[in-house]
Amino acid sequence: MGVTVDVHQVYKYPFEQVVASFLRKYPNPMDKNVISVKIMEEKRDESTGIIYRKRIAICQNVVPEILRKSLSTLVILYWKKVSILKVPNIQLEEESWLNHQERNMAIRSHCLTWTQYASMKEESVFRESMENPNWTEFIQRGRISITGAGFLNCILETFASTFLRQGAQKGIRIMEMLLKEQCGAPLAE
């Protein structure tokens, strides 16, 4: 089945400031779930000027203990037992393409942990706002699908949906705080 979460936000700051804040957003004391972010690859296409980045984020496992216990051991092929949810950290891979000339940055991310049981993908874009060229629009769509957990698939997807919505709102609050600290008050209309 799967769940989808959509987010739309307009930051009343110029594109360059918003992207710079996004790239410095984590780790941050306001969100202790993100432990570290490491740049794995960064390169600039000389013909287009587009900057490509691949980053890996290490996040705390936020699955509630009751769900971890419910699924802690699953019997799969050959009666081999595996611990699914009993991992302390989760790895996410993020790829981004920053185009200064067109004033947009496209981002794709997905979960590297639990790939045989779950699929988590997000696609986002920061772009100059149509409403005001000194503002930046952020659009994100995330999707999570859980398989292999039987009747608990739906419960885990519901938890994931709630967590993603709350995480998106927390991310927006962190961005607003960082922008205000680094750039001052938002730009007026």
Automatic annotation (TrEMBL):
GO cellular component, as recorded: mitochondrial intermembrane space
Domain of life: Eukaryota
Domain PRELI/MSF1 as annotated: residue spans: 1-187
PANTHER family membership: MSF1/PX19 RELATED
Official protein name in the record: PRELI domain-containing protein 2 isoform X1
Origin species: Sapajus apella (Brown-capped capuchin)
Classification lineage: Eukaryota, Metazoa, Chordata, Craniata, Vertebrata
